[in-house]
Amino acid sequence: MKHWKTAVLLPVLLLLLPACGAGAGETAGGGLTPVSICLEWTPNTNHTGLYAALSLGYFQEEGLDVQILQPPEDGASALCAAGRTEFAVTAQDTLAAALSREEPLEITAVAAILQHDTSGILSRAGEGMDRPKGLEGHTYSTYNGLIELAMLRRVVELDGGDFSQVNLVPYAVTDEAGALREGLTDALWVYYGWGGVSAELAGLETDYFYFKDIDPVFDFYTPIIVANNAFLKEHPETARAFLAAASKGYAYAVEHPEEAAQMLMDGDDTGSLSGSAALVTASQKWMAEQYQADAERWGYMDPGRWNAFYQWLNDNGLVENPIAENAGFTNSFLPQ
Asked: How far is residue 18's CA from residue 155's CA, in Å, rounded to a whole number?
């Protein structure tokens, strides 16, 4: 199961929000500029820096009144492209469809939340699935994504395996450790910071391999923050202010993971984290090493890595139209 949580539908009242091009230049009470960011899923440790920045007043210090929104049924990126939110959270692989359309969505990636792709395949320990070839003869729970299955085929074949021998079973797993323990599946695609840590806490011994360790082209950026293009053009300083505050929030989460985890749980108004304090805290401690990792600054997106992944999609016919070099991202709004 690639995704961490089931998205919560956005209330109908959100549709009444003004378009960002009109609203970003106006001020809220106290002279603050209203800005919103729509998450891609319910709150989790991908988003901790945003909640920390909100809790610690970093957005206010930048003159912003920030709202964190839950995604509508058609996704955060579509909402952002339509001008109903200035920013949204998505992933580079998900963004590919938006950029390869005949009329690409009017959004641009402006920051990487994590510096490296932490996704991979989780399986029960000792059954040979610590490497891609070991998936032969085992059941893999797929969500039937075009890019997902192409990536899985690639790593299995690079490892000398026969992808046709992997038993693909469509199955929506919400409890990764439980599904593996009960034998409902043999292998799952997870992000280790949530699915892997959850399995650790459940006491399940597992094997895991990262896609990026099998083929470096899969070290793409996920998750990322995107922004509405018209907003970036009309209000560049507001965009810079937002990312400056977000950067401080993620820096705080790196240095103070337990306190930041509590801010995330306190700020969650969906109820999805209720009763999950141990998981959130453990995940946050693991994620603290991932936000900036080996990069010189939080949020930076390396052009070579960005372009390499999209070129792989182009070469393998996995997008509607080829994605141009350097399309869809910029580092120019990040704090220096």
From this structure: 45
Where in the chain are the domains? 12-116+221-315, 119-217
Instruction: Quote the pTM value.
Output: 0.91
Nearest to 70 by CA among 83, 86, 89: 89
According to DSSP, the residues that pair with 67 across neighbouring strands are: 36
User: CATH topology of 12-116+221-315 equal to that of 119-217?
Assistant: yes
What tokens were used for 68? 């964190």
Of the CA atoms within 13 Å of residue 127, those in its CB half-sphere come to 20
Q: Would you state the structure tokens that stand for residue 293, as one six-digit string?
A: 């990792």
* Angle at alpha carbon of residue 78, lines to 240 and 312, rounded to 5°: 85
CATH architecture observed for domain 12-116+221-315: 3-Layer(aba) Sandwich (3.40)
35 touches 66 (CB < 8 A): yes
Q: In this structure, are residues 159 and 211 in contact, taking their beta carbons and an 8 Å threshold?
A: no
Low-confidence stretches of the chain (pLDDT < 70) are: 1-30
**How distant, in Å, are the alpha carbons of 132, 145, 163 from that of 137?**
12, 21, 10
Q: In one letter, which amino acid is 150?
A: A
Q: In this structure, how many other beta carbons lie within 10 angstroms of the beta carbon of residue 44? A: 25
**3-class secondary-structure state, position 67:** strand
Cis geometry, peptide bond prior to residue 236 (ω within 30 degrees of 0): no
Class of domain 119-217: alpha beta
Pairing of strands 87-90, 33-38: parallel
Radius of gyration of the chain measured on its C-alpha atoms: 20
CA distance readout (Å), 271 to 225, 267, 275, 276, 328: 23, 10, 9, 10, 33
- Report pLDDT digits (tens) over 122-141: 999 999 999 999 999 999 99
Sign of CA dihedral 48, 51, 53, 56: negative
DSSP annotation string for 258-301: HHHHHHHHHH--SSTTTT-HHHHHHHHHHHTTTSSTTSSSTB--
pLDDT at 27: 54
